[in-house]
Specification:
Strands 1-2-3-6-5-4 form a six-stranded antiparallel β-barrel. It has one domain: Bacteriophage SPP1 head-tail adaptor protein (Thrombin, subunit H). It has 118 residues and is mainly β. It has one helix and six strands. Strand 1 and strand 2 form a beta hairpin. It is globular and about 50 Å long.
Length: 118
């Protein structure tokens, strides 16, 4: 039985009801400038609602540091899966995405948990 579609809808409704506003800034490579030798970046912002919390002290390791945050968002609310090249703006503070954890059902993303560092 396909549970993925109803679970995606429920996750989106829960985030809309209980989550706070966050802006996911997708960063993609732009055009190469031969004069400066650099590649520009194209930033696309998507406003979503998600649940923000501190990471647990037991989760601190080589990658996750004390003071990092966890943002849970509904997969149905974003067009593409977030990556570690993306940034998240919450309350005017820019955060780097350190890790993306995908919660799936039947190989379909239901939610994404983003580990963030300011």
């Amino acid at each position: 039985m396909a549970l993925a579609s109803p679970l995606r809808k429920v996750a989106s409704k829960l985030m809309a009801k209980f989550g706070g506003e966050a802006t996911i800034r997708t960063v993609t490579p732009g055009v190469y400038n031969p004069t400066t030798g650099t590649i520009s970046q194209v930033e696309t912002d998507t406003v979503v609602r998600g649940v923000l919390e501190d990471v647990n002290a037991r989760e601190v390791n080589e990658l996750v540091q004390a003071g990092d945050k966890r943002l849970a968002i509904a997969a149905a609310d974003v067009a593409t899966a977030p990556t570690t090249t993306d940034r998240v703006v919450i309350g005017g503070v820019l955060h780097q995405v350190i890790r993306v954890i995908t919660i799936e059902q039947d190989n379909t993303a239901i939610t994404y948990e983003l580990i963030l560092r300011a």
